[in-house]
Amino acid sequence: MVSPDHPDKYRVLEDAFGFSTFRSRQEEIVDAVLSGRNVLAVMPTGAGKSLCFQLPALVKGGLSIVVSPLIALMDDQVAALKLSGQKAEAIHSGKSREENVEIWRRVTRGEVSLLYMSPERLMTPRMQAALTKFSLGLIAVDEAHCISQWGHSFRAEYLMLGALREAFPGVPIIALTATADRSTRDDISEKLFGGDVSVFVSGFDRPNISITVADKTRAGAEIERFVKSRGGQSGIVYRISRKKVEDTAAALSAAGIRALAYHAGMPPADRAANQEAFLAEPGIVMVATVAFGMGIDKSDVRFVVHGDVPSSLEAYYQEIGRAGRDGEPADAYMLYGLEDVRTRRRFIDEADCEPERRRVDALRLDALIGFCEATSCRRVALLAYFGESSQACGNCDICLDPPALADGRDVARLAIDLVRTTGERYGAAYIVSLLTGETNDMVLSRGHDSLPLFAAGSSRKKAEWRSILRQLVAARALHAETGAFGSLMLGEKAEAVLSGNQEFLIRLPSPGKSRRSKRGSA
Ligand code: ADP
Ligand code: ZN
């Protein structure tokens, strides 16, 4: 794609913002908007979203509109912009009629370049008629995830913004959000842009955090060994239950480590005292449930240990993100055991919630397992989950110590063939039953026990086949459908694997032997 050059952007970057270079993908986004394209920019908080619409608005000159859901957010942004000498204003219901009229006068005199307002105000016929007198530079939609019913912050007024494209033809729309989940992104793209939008995801990488996933055999001993190897550093150890938090904190203390506990079942005073100590003193290890961490701002946390598998990759990303905020090297160390996966599945199965919610949670757990089972760079897998592409990092257990891989063509072909001959309509558990030759009621009632491939994989255990199927999904040789049954289907790489010309490397599990069992003490 040709991206026309906009030389003014560098001048504005220096003069209006005082920065000498763009960060991550800011420049690409600015270029796209300046070329008149619609953009969805997904970046975590603090990554520099504001510049992505403020700078093109200034380069284009004239009036641009910023849609924001909350009066407080509008006022904050306008105040910050005014401080840095920019001509920003907000019109909203928190101001008197006179104030709003006065601001509008300034707008008509060309004295405002960024005008903030709510979606419902922008979408009134009156406002739209008034705005036709201007040639708008762009329309920025901040907190764009509010348009998605998937998220927690859905706002019905945001749905009106679907009419924006037709109301202001030819004006580029840039939507911004920190919410990176794919379903939310797809939703924004569809509702706001009818699918016609360039999506940019960036800024999620935290390269100073080293990532390790290790086999879990005896969690207590493994946690203790890891924490001791980081002697005297501040860190957080997450455990799945209050009881495990207490047991682990006691065991670490007994081993001479300054460990404190934190969970929602403790007396509030004790909890607060422990949190206070962790923030104020160096070298404390906080053993906690996920109740700990929201809003904790401590820059020198050197490690985050997950003694149990977290609930999702979003949660994992958030939790490890509490390490190394100062930019210095830090560790994310997770223990991964099949028992945990079973516990997580049970949580989902037993949760009192809508079937749709259960289905999405199950898919999220699958993505997390895929990350734990990864055969190539974990950071690439983690960032890919958020939609950001990257190169092998050299700072995760797999980059530093690649696992032994074997040619998995035969097992892959067997699994893919079976998925195909049964019509691509069964989930992984059922395919595993067929591979291992299990004669349960479902198999018998469908007559699948007479398939030529029935029991063709019986030399391997169910757990091994599950791992193989997960790797095939991760390698896109199979595709796990997102519908109600999670059916396995052929993936885009299936033909390449079936044709068998290329080696297809997978980690072939060898039961009884713990993979990379010595890692983590490094
Ligand atoms: P977000 O809206 O994504 O949470 P902000 O736009 O508030 O993030 O930016 C976060 C911080 O990064 C701000 O202090 C901003 O000044 C700074 N920043 C943004 N872009 C750049 C850049 N290109 N160079 C240096 N600092 C930047
Ligand atoms: Zn890596």
TrEMBL record:
One of its GO terms (cellular component) is replisome. Its cofactor is Mg(2+); Zn(2+). Residues 508-522 are annotated as: Disordered. InterPro entries: DEAD/DEAH_box_helicase_dom, DNA_helicase_ATP-dep_RecQ, DNA_helicase_ATP-dep_RecQ_bac, Helicase_ATP-bd, Helicase_C-like, HRDC-like_sf, HRDC_dom, HRDC_dom_sf. GO terms for biological process: DNA recombination; DNA repair; DNA replication; SOS response. GO terms for molecular function: 3'-5' DNA helicase activity; ATP binding; DNA binding; four-way junction helicase activity; hydrolase activity; metal ion binding. Keywords: ATP-binding, DNA damage, DNA recombination, DNA repair, DNA-binding, Helicase, Hydrolase, Isomerase, Metal-binding, Nucleotide-binding, Zinc. Residues 30-198 form the Helicase ATP-binding domain. SUPFAM superfamilies: HRDC-like, P-loop containing nucleoside triphosphate hydrolases, Winged helix' DNA-binding domain. This is DNA helicase RecQ.
